[in-house]
Amino acid sequence: MIIAHDLGTTGNKASLHHDDGRLVASTTVGYPAHFAAGGVAEQDPQDWWDAVVSATRDLLARTETSPVDIQGLVVSGQMMGAVLLDGDGRPVRPAIIWADTRAGSQQRELEQALGAEHAYRMLGHRLNPTYSVEKIMWVRDNEPDVWSRVRRFCIAKDYIVLGLTGRLATDRSDASGTNAYDQQTGDWSDEVLAAARLDRSLFPEILDSTAIAGSLTDAAAQALGLHTGVQVVMGGGDGPMAAVGSGIVAPEDGAYVSLGTSSWISFASHTPLIDAGMRTFTFDNVVPGSFVPTATMQAGGASIQWISEALSPDPAKPETARLTAEAGGDLDTEDLYFLPYLLGERSPIWDPHARGAFIGIGRHHTRQHLVRAVLESLGYNLLSSIHAFRESGATIDRIDAVGGGAQSDVLLQILADVWGVPVRRRTIVEEANSLGAAVTGAVGLGLADFSAARELSEVTAEFVPDAGRHSVYASRHTRFTSAYDALAPWFAAAPREGGH
Question: So which residues are the catalytic ones?
Answer without folding.
Answer: 238
